[in-house]
Write the structure tokens for this entry.
Amino acid sequence: MTSSQSGRPPRPNLAFRRLRGRRSPAEFAALVRRAAREIGERVSCDARYVGRVEAGEIRCPNYAYERVLLHMFPGRTLTDLGFAPRSAVRGRAARTAVEARASGAVPDETRRAFGPYDTQDPHDPAGPDPSDVRYGPYENGPWNHEESDVLRRAFMTGTGATVAAATLAPLGITTGAAAAGRPLRRVGAPEAAALEEAVRRIRLLDDRHGADGLYRRAAAPLRAAYALLDAGATRQATADRLHAGAGELAISVGWLAHDSSRFDDARSHYAEALATARMTGDPGLEAHAFCNTAFLARDAGRPREAVRAAQAAQRAGRALGSDRLMSLLALREAGGWAGLADRTGCEQALARAQALFARGRSDADPEWMSFYGEAELEGLEAQCWSTLGDWRRASRHARHAARLQDPHFTRNIALYTAELAGDLAHEGRPDEAAEAGLRVLGLLDQVQSSRIRTMLAATARALLPHRRAPGVPDFLNRHASLPRSGRA
């Protein structure tokens, strides 16, 4: 129930009002819209919306606003921002829907109660953000609202691998009929939306916690995605969404394998995504698959393949009109040239990447590129100089990357700082390297990434001859005390 349905007068949200401070509602709304753009969301926040939140008319925001607000105020919960817990707002409606599903009847009011896939968001009496096209309206289905809502809510409660287990399970439910030998019914837009949301949530958790705790659980939703494709869709537009979603999910699962140092598994998933892209004639998906293949080839010690894959990605991506995408693909090519010890080729690709990046963002930028900002540009350039053995340049760019990174991307902060530690160790600055390494060790309770642990292990080996330098013994001892399962 919302405040407008409960019969109780709304209670002002004083915590949210304090966060606004001396800014006018319009100024604060502009900050919300800017924060949304930073993470690839689209909300049309205005002074009226801010006023309704502060008046208590919106007891709990819709999911797009939730992501934006938690991005603006990292470390806080919706309750800290003055909102009611989501379970308290929609608990009664959820029970109604479960009962309706069991009886086979879903009344209109129940469909409205599960707002993420209907025209009325129960957490916002004025309805969903009209610019946020991902949240409906979609085709009706007697169980899709419930399962899709579970998919969303599971990511909003808890952290790390436990969240992943709860979150990735609902999509797997769709394969139950196939497992029982029954034919799957033809699917519609709600299943496509659930698949797209699974991809977003996997990326969100990876940004915060790294891949190791997620990869083991990601195979089931990927199988479910391809089972949905086999079942067939009710409309061609839905089929296109399902193919694109399955391909993006394959890339996401491939990245989890990549970051967990399971290179063969990653290569297989990227190839699967590429095959899906070629089959459906999707240049955006093809560019993304080749982009990740280039990155994998570089990390796996196949630099020439990295160059070829990055160039193939650029050929596929040119028609999309995204300068940011082409900038990232030029960086992938630069990484391959660095691996070939071709400094000239690397510098030329880096120059293209910087020039394209300077043109700014556009509406043509793919959703999956929300991670690619100035920090990532600096971090990837640092990796190129490190591969070429120019440790001073590498450490300078890695330091900039760590300082520029948005706090939301905890994994990337750990990654850039680990890069900095290794570069400083090779540059002959062991005390600074140890300090950076200790900062990374302090993040390992939040981040699970074999790649980062491998980098830390290399730094530890490089610092062994400098045991007497300030801070080095502390770093080496703490690194040595890591649990064996958490060591590279």
DSSP finds 24 helices and no strands in the chain.
